[in-house]
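Q: Can someone sanity-check these two? First one:
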Amino acid sequence: YVTLMNENYANPDLPEGAAEGVLRGGYRFGSYGPQTGQRVTLLGSGAIFTEVVQAAQQLAAQGIGSDVYSITSWSELARDGMAHESNGDTSYLAQLLSSSSGPIVAATDYVRAVPESVRAYLPAGRTYRTLGTDGFGRSDTRAVLRSFFNVDAQSIASCALGAPPN
């Protein structure tokens, strides 16, 4: 499949069993690097998801493991979290991330307020950093803008490395 947003890119294959997660707002895409030692959790959406995968690969090259999640709808995750919060249940997002460890970094080409909308529904005690394209009126190449807004692979990896461990 090819996604048409602000950029054409080939979507990676959907992992087996992920179809329900796509509809619920997110799914576990994969794991990179060592399974023991320092680990981080990376969430990405839209065109920035490819940057998240590249960040995971960069971290793996440094000996740091990561679990990568594709977020298909921040809004759906927030709605689910609010519904479960009023019932006293665990949110889908908290369940989804329960098998991951380390600080969580969310990167999107939306403003940071969008991934911030799910902060209350994360697993308890986890550090959460958000990266997004806050601002307007800028014009440049995608690479320069992603670097400026800190949503390029290098910035995502650096944010993950700088986050306090859980």
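And here is the second, same format, sequence then tokens:
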Amino acid sequence: MKTKEFIRKVKKLGFNVNVKNIKGIWIENSNGSNVAYVCRYKMYEFDTVFFAFENIPELKKVSLFNLLVEYASTPLDEREEPQKFYLQLTTLIATGTENYLNHNTTNGSFVLRGRCQTPKWQTQFTQAEIDEMKEKFGVALSDFEKIPVTDEEIE
């Protein structure tokens, strides 16, 4: 289970999620009391030994427990989405020109356009996809700058 999916599902149950601690994810009830904790850097480690956990209604407690088990059982390398990048052409383009690599997902073609990703136009690429393009087309893509996609921009 991906971390973002875990957080979304926990929030859907009505809990707050605190991810400020790099070591783990804290789940809190509406008044800020700790309900559970799951480790981000080790598998199979989580904790529900909190007074607030005892007071959760049974069905909600079971749902949260199952999410904790699923996330804690997920291998560490499968918890995070790979970083995505825009590829912006940096040479021979006038200022203000739409110069981001776009992949037409219906016919496989590539064009330079804006960086808005749609179901038809892919503009965000993982490093693996970039490497695949380089190999498939025999190009270095050295005229393109990799611009990291922020979490807010991920489609």
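A (reply): Looked at the second one. Strands lie at 16-18, 24-28, 34-39, 46-47, 84-89, 100-104, 110-113, 121-122, 125-126, 144-148. The mean pLDDT is 92.
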